[in-house]
Amino acid sequence: MIGQDFQKFDLPDGPGIYFFKKGKKILYVGKATSLRDRVRSYFSADLIETRGPLLVKMLAEAESIDHTTTPSVLEALILEAYTIKTEQPPYNTLEKDDKSYNYVVITEEDFPRISIERGRNLLQGKITVGNVKVRNIFGPFPNGTQLKEAMKIVRKIFPYRDSKCIPADIQLENKKVLIPKPCFNRQIGLCPGVCTGEIHSKQYEKIVQHLELFFSGKTEKLKKSLTKEMSSFAKAREFERAEDVKRTIFALDHIRDVGLIKSDNVKDSILSRDPSFRIEAYDIAHISGTSTVGVMVVMEDGEFSKNEYRKFTIKGSDGVVTVDDTKNLAELLTRRLGHAEWPLPSLIVIDGNTAQTNIAKKVLEKKGFIIEIASVVKDDKHKAREIVGERATVMKYEREILSLNAEAHRFAIAFHRNLRGRRMLGRK
Fold this sequence. Notes:
This protein is α+β, with helices and mostly antiparallel strands. Helix content is 42%, strand content 20%. The strands form three sheets. Strands 8, 9, 10, 11, 12, 13 and 14 form a seven-stranded mixed sheet that branches. A hairpin with a 2-residue loop joins strand 9 (290-300) and strand 10. The longest helix has 34 residues, at 391-424.
């Protein structure tokens, strides 16, 4: 066991990745904006309350801490993903299964697309994206929000084609246009001109190779390759292209990752904000008991999973719908839990106080489920006053609980208005 003496670990105040190790085996790897501050957080007095038993178990097994510094937070993010893939640290894989992780995917095409995909879309026996074979996969990346922020930075350095960019030759073959139409990202400089025919497939291949080196954590090798390209262009008196490469090298040496630094200033996800933690929130909407509806909204990986939202028309007891929101909530939860094909949440969020919490517990008990409940109590202006639930869970997921509660309310109101409008027009 490492013990509680943080002072014996000489860690720099800069970005990089850190390892908790048992002998030579890596138990857990994480990234940090400040290695010193991040590792210090593991030695707080309220560790079990704020971070959870899984982390405490890991610390009990760990015998040492090691680290690798990186020039930027972006490169720490890349290196963390590479290390998880190659070392398979047990406490990283316990934290999430492969289906929940995020991956950077490059397709196998004349002009490969680069996209972010969830593991569940890639681990079903067919490694394709939109019926196109995959050329390369990088990851896993534990935090989807940070990966999206990272890709914004990467794309400014290496503009690439995404799924919305249709190559010029395909546009012309389909005879939809006489002149190839630029995609939106081409207009703002984030696509190199695949859609307009401004770039040849061999030139674009160079960009893809650069991206592959970058996402393999081989930044120095990438810089050497770019320097060699710059020299070749200069010798061939292609000074404009040489200048473009020079700017790329400069961008790699001066990565502006302020957004990543902001999003990294939180504790590690291992039972702090566990990205695989599925949260569902429910809400009821009606006017004096008419057109009563219920909704379910979902958050996974810290992001709204809109394809998993669900709508319910409340039927009531014996076809009679009341204005009693506790009874309506009971029906909503009962019907939701009747769908065995839907993944179960780790936490459910409801609107209300003791009455709503008790009815939710009763439904869960009757169905035989043990799921945590967080109840958002509102003031007389319908603003969140407090969150009632397990203290540790509320502390970890306060932001997610409040945003999901607000999203459930928005979704319920929108569904209710739509349904009421249809009924007023005599539609079903």
